Amino acid sequence: LREGDERARCLAVYVLGGRGETKAEETLILLVSSDDSLAVRRFAIEALAKLKSKKAEEIIRATLKNSRLRTTAIDALAEIGEESSLEELTEYLTDPDWRVRQHVIRSIAKIGGTQLIPQLVVVLGEDKIGNVRAECAEALGHLGAQETVEPIIKALKDPHEAVRRKAARALGILNNSPSIAPLSDAFHEEKSFLVK
Questions:
Q1: How far is CA 167 from CA 126, 139, 149, 172, 193, in A?
Q2: Among the four residues 9, 50, 73, 97, which has the most C-beta atoms within 10 Å?
């Protein structure tokens, strides 16, 4: 793993990760912290996530500080699925990079972070990027909290098509009687075939 071109090292790390062997953990940790290749480091983070060990989780959390590895680390923490990661992930809901915010929202939903619903409702109503608001609408639907129905209903009128589409889907998942009339109205008013 220390020799050869970047492609060969990535492949080796991918194979190690696919096996989920804990004896590879030390090697993967070393690669995450010291390999010259960002691609190798990303593959090593993904492989560590599959091990789901406490040590792996600590190393992955440390990589959140590196902006070039941040989305990979966020996804890896979601893969590990520990609720203890949620507090740290919350810090990145306001990251300047919209892709980071999108990954955080997806990870919160995957981990099941219902305690972060109030923060997600704020993001749904205030984030400037439509893709982030869309991810938020979808996450709120998957988290299944009935108190999110009203904010999601408001999202049916969002100027961004993906937000309206995911808001409609989220309301369908929540299966809440008060959302039937707004969904029906939105269906009749909607011009986009993809949203309908």
A1: 15, 10, 9, 9, 15
A2: 73
